[in-house]
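dumping this here before i forget
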Amino acid sequence: MRSDDAKPTFETSEVGTPLDYTEDLYRVYFEVRDIDGSVETLLRDFLGTARAAQLQRLTHGFELTLPIQCVPDIVRLLTRENVAVYQVARYAKVEGSWR
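structure:
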């Protein structure tokens, strides 16, 4: 799909790629195991208080809203804490902006 075919339209000719440096928000799923709540704490700290309200805990991970460029940062934070990341899935773009 071209970016100008999507609803809402995107500000880049590349959708969901390393070339997307916009502040557009996406819903993203991280499949991780969180035995003691430390992963949830890490994600909440990354997102900040206001954005952490949108963090959703699922059976095998978390869904959150963020720009695509934040995904590698979160994966890096998780691996530094020795948390295995089993899957990352980018869902659709959502309304709003990171700032």
